[in-house]
Amino acid sequence: HAALILGAFRAAAHRQATLPRLARHLDGAIRWDTSQWHTTTHNTNPTPGTDASAGAGAETGTGASASASAGAGAEETFATVSLLDIPDHRHELSTISCGHPPPLLLRNGHAHPLTPHHTALPIGLGTLAGPPNYPIETFPFHPGDLLLLYTDGVTEARNTHGTFYPLTERAPAWTHHTPHHLLQQLRQDLLAHTNGRLTDDAAAVAIRRLPPHPHTPDHPHEGDGAT
Description:
The protein has five helices and ten strands, in the order ααββββββββαααββ. The strands form two sheets. Strands 1-2-3-4-7 form a five-stranded antiparallel β-sheet, covered by helices on one side. It has helices at residues 2-13, 19-44, 152-155, 167-170, 179-193, and strands at 54-59, 64-70, 78-85, 92-98, 104-107, 110-113, 137-140, 146-150, 204-209, 221-226. Keywords: Hydrolase.
């Protein structure tokens, strides 16, 4: 399902779709794919009680981050997603949250979770509560700010005592890192916390808003990703 989400995102994003239209496109792609899987499963293995399961995680660079999972029926396949739009010439970002962990905004030694006031259902479950609604929320994103997106495989990583990885406590120390260095530090810290045993997919993307430069007006972001 990670490949499906990425493919659907790339097919729609290049048409400069709005964030709500993009979310609806992804939701429809997941629901169509799982309905095809459900039909194929019943056609090829009609034995009552038969089930199947799969899991995946995905990251897309600066456009979206997602975690996907599948269960026994089509209604159990979904993906939590954060969709972002970072305009070149405004110091802000717009986002839609579909059940995904909130991004962290790192600024001046502090980590600020960009917790939305409204969240949508995960992608693939958008019609369970009626017509899907995807509210957009906007947050400041100034030059020098560093944005960290991550899957729940990061925050739910446990040590030998069962303690979750304390991302919001560790991240403030990384506010002045480059995106690449931040992700290297995060990976090393995660492996140290779990004694080298990550039991779930963990992925992250880091994006820094660069100050305006007269020779590069169309490239105000510096980003990196890791899994």
